[in-house]
Design a protein that fits this description.
262 residues; globular
Length: 262
């Protein structure tokens, strides 16, 4: 409960003089508490400054990791611009996503945190709205796979960082591709800084998508490659094998030139 609402309740209590609350006072207190209820998604969105989000996400990375940094970058700005109900969210909950979820190096935390924030303001339980939110999240993932990242330089960086194309949304693939491209070790300070930049870059692009959606509606820019669609035509739904479910670049892990396709 925020300070203003606590003050209202204190006023009611003082007015009651310690006696039993009248029906009017009780109704007023109930109304104040009703405002604390968490609304259903999607929540109200206000266009944000992508640079402000990126600059918030970058130090957020060093505080709680990539997933927290991205989520805090977006939700923290919405707390500042809108307030309730965003003030009810403990953004620290997304620390779990650090290093591809607890250091496991699965899904990149910058994508994890950004996607959660995007769904909060665009998604819903119903299939239509959910699907529209998913399309926007897929655009973020395709962008991440196909773009040389990081592509945002924080205003006060610790090191200068070069980018690389991951062709995968997975943390371990993304980090390994960058290490091979730059020569830095995976536990180096430079790699740590690189992930801070990637966190800022990803949160920034997520907000750019949300802003465009708020203005004129969302249209995908990054689509699956013809190679991926060829793989899916056999391995995905309705294909001859139908033994896979994926909408990500296959080449990040499978048949990269060293392994022959059967």
């Amino acid at each position: 409960m925020n300070r203003a609402r606590r003050d209202v309740l204190k006023m009611f209590a003082a007015a009651a003089g310690g006696a039993a609350l009248t029906p009017l006072f009780a109704k007023s207190i109930y109304a104040a508490k009703e405002q604390e209820k968490i609304p259903e998604v999607p929540w109200t969105y206000k266009k944000l400054d992508p640079v402000a989000v990126a600059e918030r996400a970058y130090p957020g990375y060093y505080k709680g990791g990539c997933s927290y940094g991205a989520f805090e970058g977006i939700i923290g700005e919405l707390k500042k611009e809108i307030g309730y109900p965003y003030i009810l969210i403990p953004t620290e909950m997304f620390i779990f996503g650090e290093g591809g979820v607890a250091g496991i190096s699965s899904l990149c935390g910058a994508l994890n945190g950004s996607a959660a924030a995007m769904f909060l303001v665009t998604g819903a339980v119903d299939r239509k709205t959910r699907g529209e939110a998913f399309d926007m999240i897929r655009e973020l993932f395709n962008w991440y796979e196909q773009t040389a990242l990081p592509n945002y330089r924080p205003k006060n960086p610790k090191y200068e960082i070069k980018g690389s194309v991951s062709k995968s949304p997975l943390c371990h693939v993304s980090v390994t591709k960058w290490c091979k491209a730059t020569g830095f070790k995976s536990y180096s300070k430079e790699r740590d800084e690189r992930c801070g930049w990637v966190t800022a870059s990803t949160a920034k692009y997520a907000v750019e998508l949300l802003n465009k959606n708020a203005d004129v509606g969302f249209k995908p820019v990054h689509v699956l490659s013809s190679q991926v669609n060829t793989c899916r035509s056999c391995h995905d739904k309705g294909g001859e094998l139908e033994n896979s479910r994926t909408m990500m670049d296959c080449g990040g892990c499978h048949f990269t030139g060293k392994t022959k396709h059967p």
